[in-house]
Write a structure and sequence with these properties.
By secondary structure, the protein is α/β, with parallel strands linked by helices. The chain is 37% helix and 13% strand. It has helices at 21-35, 60-68, 85-88, 97-106, 139-162; strands spanning 9-15, 42-48, 91-94, 114-117. The protein has a four-stranded parallel β-sheet. The chain is globular. It starts with 8 loop residues before the first strand and ends in a 6-residue tail after the last helix. Bound molecules: 4-nitrophenyl phosphate. The site of 4-nitrophenyl phosphate has 10 residues, from loops. 4-nitrophenyl phosphate is lined by residues 15-21, 52, 132, 134.
């Protein structure tokens, strides 16, 4: 039997606490990758700029909103981004401009990660941030899902175009 091809691209989503936006992005993008049949080629993870919620499950409001749309965030565990992530992940994508500034300052000079805003991959939303829903209304979580679904589609299209061909 032919061996499974190795992961070709690794994507890390980053927000402030890693309990609302980036776990939602991780869960939705992983589902999009799976639907495209690329689970063994694209690795997906998420992290927070700060360690407030290290070891915690995603916010129950984020989980409920995602489940309503058919995405399961259970099983994810919050963690803080670390310098070595910039040596492993090809894409390190921030949910908002503050997160982006933090990541740009943190990126080691020898890292080749593409550090950018996730919504740069959403049609018509380039340069925009995913609003933080943590202190707001529950409809903020539905908006996060809409934005993340759109950006995920664009990101998957770009990665898919550039995936190295596997030759048996
Ligand atoms: P996230 O949302 O960055 O999307 O996970 C937040 C989660 C927690 C806090 C702020 C934002 N907090 O202040 O604890």
């Amino acid at each position: 039997m032919a061996p499974e091809p190795l992961v070709s691209v690794a994507v890390l989503f980053v927000c402030l606490g890693n309990i609302c936006r980036s776990p939602t992005a991780e869960g939705i993008f992983r589902a999009q990758v799976q639907a495209a049949g690329l689970s063994n080629r694209i690795l997906v993870d998420s992290a927070g700029c700060y360690a407030y919620h290290e070891g915690e499950s995603p916010d129950i409001r984020a989980c409920a909103a995602a489940l309503e749309r058919g995405f399961d965030l259970s099983g994810q565990v919050g963690r803080q981004i670390k310098a070595s992530d910039f040596g492993y992940f090809d894409y390190v994508l921030a949910m908002d401009r503050e997160n982006l500034t933090y990541l740009q300052k943190m990126q080691p000079s020898d890292s080749h990660s593409r550090v950018g805003l996730f919504l740069d991959y959403a049609d018509g939303r380039e340069g925009q941030s995913v609003p933080d829903p943590y202190f707001g209304h529950s409809d903020g979580f539905a908006l996060v899902i809409d934005l993340v679904e759109s950006a995920g589609k664009g990101l998957l299209k770009q990665i898919g175009r550039n995936l190295p061909k596997i030759t048996a």
